[in-house]
């Protein structure tokens, strides 16, 4: 099974078999189930920027932090950029607020959870078992256009000495090819992306991200897609495409304290 669903204490999440091979790594692809937010953010909304009550969002974040056993949960204000925040054991900082304008999170510090929020965009987890460095990347279609995944791999190589062929990648639940409709794709996508069109105006962004990771040096067998569409599965996921005013799902990765 590529992706398995786990439910405990009223919360539910998915896990990827590829990443479950590493006992030192903790990852959870959170569903909307559980949590204390009320409609239209009902469930485990993890975003402060969608209009939800901040106290409820804080409570939801506390729930996932406690469930994962991480000492710190780091989140940023995502803007569909290639900007990177690196939390290194060499210059450790503590963040009690969201730094704005970041879409790539990287750390080698055990116990620090990296949270990416999404409602149809992909969260892409990267892990190097050789150097024990993790990244979590916010990748929507604008991120694909900018090749944010290639940027993340470059940062891992340049800052931490990671070899791309050693990296593992997991792609979260997100907008599937069944629902990724772009009526103005000729203006939004470069012509090279048009080959990812599976039928008129519908695109396979999962395959696009896989190909961008492979182009960055990853091996195809080291990449796994959850293959769960957020727009289709309303019971498990928030979706901006489906509901417009709604919450945000969360994907978290962390290194277990040694």
From TrEMBL:
CDD domains: YfiH (cd16833)
Regions annotated as coiled coil: none
Sequence similarity: Belongs to the purine nucleoside phosphorylase YfiH/LACC1 family.
Source species: Desulfobacca acetoxidans (strain ATCC 700848 / DSM 11109 / ASRB2)
Protein name, as recorded: Multi-copper polyphenol oxidoreductase, laccase
Domain of life: Bacteria
Keywords, comma-separated and alphabetical: Hydrolase, Metal-binding, Transferase, Zinc
GO molecular function: copper ion binding; hydrolase activity; S-methyl-5-thioadenosine phosphorylase activity
PANTHER family for the chain: PURINE NUCLEOSIDE PHOSPHORYLASE LACC1, UNCHARACTERIZED PROTEIN YFIH
Ribonucleoprotein among keywords: no
Pfam annotation, one family: Cu-oxidase_4
Catalytic activity: adenosine + phosphate = alpha-D-ribose 1-phosphate + adenine; S-methyl-5'-thioadenosine + phosphate = 5-(methylsulfanyl)-alpha-D-ribose 1-phosphate + adenine; inosine + phosphate = alpha-D-ribose 1-phosphate + hypoxanthine; adenosine + H2O + H(+) = inosine + NH4(+)
Residues passing through the membrane, by range: none
Tagged with keyword Hydrolase: yes
